[in-house]
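Researcher: I need the complex structure. Ligand is zinc ion. Inputs:
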Amino acid sequence: MIERYLEPAIETASRASLRALQEQRLREQIAHAYMNSPFYRRKLAAAGVTPAAIAGLDDLARLPFTTKDELKQDQADHPLWGTLLAVPVEDCLRVHMTSATTGRPLAFLDTRDDWHGFYHSYARSLWAFGIRPADMVMAAFSYGPWIGYWSGFYAAQDLGCLVFPAGGFSTDQRIDALLTYPITVLGCTPSYALFLAEQAARKGIDLAKETRVRITWHTGEPGASIPATKAKIEAAFGAQAYDLPGLTEIAAWGFECDARAGLTHVHEDYCYPEVLDDNDRPVKPGERGELVFTSLYRKAMPLLRYRTRDIVQVTDRPCPCGRTLLAFEGGVLARVDDMKKVRGIIVYPRRIEEIVRGHAGVDEFQIVFRRVDGLDDILVRIDPAPTLARRECEGLCRALEEGLHIGLGIRVTVEPTEPGGLPRWDHKAKRVKDERSEVPF
Ligand SMILES: [Zn+2]
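Model: Output:
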């Protein structure tokens, strides 16, 4: 029998032994940050905390939080790498950058050991999806300073897979490679998986029938944890799709497993998760809160209590796979930064995607938050499949309006574009426009 876990000693460890390991790494990390990172020396001093005050995880709440804005400010004030850097820059092996929506991206450095930790934990995730050394893997992420491409590539190589680096390929070249080579695994953003399938269909190619892809994994966006989006990807490739949430600053921290129970496990030995409510108190199992991570392995830029702005729900059920690692229900459920308020109602774009993707015949969509006659309004533009007749398209729009009204508790206008009228995305999609913030009032 093929082993289910890559690292059973960690993945099925007793909670007590895992906690002992976390506490030992936590103490090392805090001492290292305090001694070597001017950024943390300052922060801990300001909070009146010394490493000696943190004996274990129960003391974690005494540490101040760290935010991405602070890190960006630190790098802006102290170019190029900021005062967070806790090792000589000569000891660093790689620089990656976070995708920035505003301002300069955050540059993140790793030592050799840091980088090994990043891709080795990622490899554990790939194994949990069912990827094995005999697989041939195509990493179809954009080639550049985004960590997603490199970590996926190195992780597959770490398992001993035959890796096809397709970072610099066009979509046509990628389709050609999928038809030509015995590629069994594809890694890409969920938006790109759908785009790739759509482009192939235009050429009369059915990727589900004409390629050997059996597993796809998706990162960079939460799409693969949205059941309707996952189902669409799985149908397009005739494969099983898996979600792999991650953060450049922390780790490729989570993974779905082959039990497919709707749970996302956390690499708790690499990064310690806290899930906190609005008052920064830990939530109970079954409840939602903001995910806060303390890195237990990275030494170049060690982060303590880093606010991810991601909302997750701690599960209250065990996963049938037998892993003892903490799990969340359904991956990242929302991003605090994506939250929109429309006529007093809170709306997350992810919820709209869940509903839109549940309807066949939508190739692409766009969400516009706008003002009509002084009132907030939501417009969802859909790019219908070319095979859809006009009347079917009208019916689809009305069905979507009804579904969105029920799902969001607010009226939404749905309009079709011409087929192919909306932009497609080869990396992370930007489907949300908030025209209210663009218009001066
Ligand atoms: Zn599991």
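Model: Summary of the prediction. The CA atoms of residues 384 and 390 lie 10 Å apart.
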